[in-house]
Amino acid sequence: MNKKTILHSAVALAAAGFLTAAVAGEDAFSKLDANADGAISSEEATAHEALYKGWETADANQDGQVDAAEFSAFEASSAPEGK
């Protein structure tokens, strides 16, 4: 393999990992949003221990629900180091 092929392969693998993580996050949000209204209520959050315990942080705008952007930010901030 030449350097160009190796570089393209590395970029493709990194992109695939990023997309997999993004889809997994969307899937988790969709599963928690039981009534599919586009937000996770505090009641729906009881199905996700970390979200329920970190509700005050996750609900960044303090409107009583966690939208997809807030959920993504919460997951990113609570992800273990190195992931």
From TrEMBL:
One family name in Pfam for this protein: EF-hand_5
Signal peptide span: 1-24
Xref: InterPro entries: EF-hand-dom_pair (IPR011992), EF_Hand_1_Ca_BS (IPR018247), EF_hand_dom (IPR002048)
PROSITE patterns in the cross-refs: EF_HAND_1
TM ranges: none
EF-hand domain segment(s): 26-44, 58-74
A GO molecular function held by the record: calcium ion binding
Keywords: Signal
Name of the featured protein: EF hand
Organism for this UniProt entry: Candidatus Thiodiazotropha endolucinida
